[in-house]
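User: My instructor asked us to take a sequence, write out its structure as tokens, and then describe one feature of it. I'm not sure where to start. Here is the sequence I was given:
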Amino acid sequence: MKEPPTLGFDSNATSPPQALLERLKDYGQEDAFTLFDELSSEERELLVKDIESLDLPRVDRIIRCSLRSQGLPAVAIEPVPESTVSTVEERTPEARERWWKTGLKAISEGKLAVLLLAGGQGTRLGTSDPKGCYNIGLPSGKSLFQLQAERILCVQRLAAQSVNEGPTAFTPIHWYVMTSPFTDEATRKFFESHKYFGLEADQVSFFQQGTLPCISKDGRFIMETPYRVAKAPDGNGGVYAALRYARLMDDMQARGVRYVDCYGVDNALVRVADPTFLGFFIDKGVSAAAKVVRKAYPQEKVGVFVRRGKGGPLSVVEYSEMDPSVASEINQGTGRLRFCWSNVCLHMFTLDFLNQVANGLEKDSIYHLAEKKIPSIHGYTLGFKLEQFIFDAFPYAPSTALFEVLREEEFAPVKNANGSNFDTPDSARLLVLRLHTRWVVAAGGFLTHSVPLYATGVEISPLCSYTGENLEAICRGRTFHAPCEITF
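Assistant: Let's start with the prediction itself. The structure tokens for your sequence are:
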């Protein structure tokens, strides 16, 4: 809830509105008005509106709870129990087939919604556009948004076919897209200009994640300018509060949604609305699940799933929080790292659990304090951004299951500019081309190429195939010259 507007505020006054000043004093933030008498009348009005836009009791609670939790001793961690993880090697073809059919049935009944975390800009990729608009250089030239939208279209068609509905009779999968104040307008325009990539406009809902003031080490607001508090997005875990604020969980319930597939935008191989993962989730009867990949080496910069305390809930520990000696420990029984299950931001939740998490996180009000250089009236000031992460939900889950996937099939992150050592558009493009090349060969097709095959491949449109299925009619006996896109 924002502060009530100041009635009859005179922007020519040399002192701030008394009631608003008293409110700031209640929370120790009166310094925000320090330079008030030096501002122009327009700037005074901007400052008053900026302070009024803040929910001061909530912001104060978050700051106090977050600073208080900072110095608490960390709870001892244990490896995730083996029984919690469905590994690739233990998975039978029969189980995969059963989960696939279960997932498609639930999708055909309108029980699945997709939740996309798309608040980030492509700053590290050299663009200020939303990351989802990025073209990683595939033969088709498709953006990340388009690849994901077409996978939704493909799953809708597969679900309709699984219950013998006609090609035009399908249940739409609703796509909830979380933007940020920095990406919202550009994202909406990108979808509109591309006609929602073949989806119906009314099956996509946009909503914005929140922002929070940046604070000094003693919890005071940092002023970006004399008339504006420095603010930053509240992390991808801000999705829970944002869904609650926009009443979108009520919207999901009204649509008959029971399960929510949640993922980050910057993965070129993400299997959006994966029927197998959904079927596994339903079969296990858990509140939360996550796809995981095996950690490649002990010092890989990824968060891993752990158990907090003996018999405690599953949680994610960031690589920077784990002692290198602990990260290198080997499980003598399996030969794997003891802490090997990497979080790749591919999650499944029940709608009931999403509601529970949104309420629990809001009540506890504990945010991660990210120390950053904050633009301020004194130049760049060392301070804190307040953030929650999507994986902050897992400690609230009464039951969690982990589902191992292969990196080369489902994880092609797009985080750093070309020329970096890892997670670049080039590396993601090659992962897509290599996977699709294997699909073509498995379906009886052949490839010719004028550059080494390790540096090229073919792209299969998501409208043709979701996981390599139904390609024999297109590929058997045919030769494709790489690089190219294979469509219907």
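For the description part of your assignment, you could build on this observation: The chain has a mean pLDDT of 93. Try explaining in your own words what that tells you about the chain.
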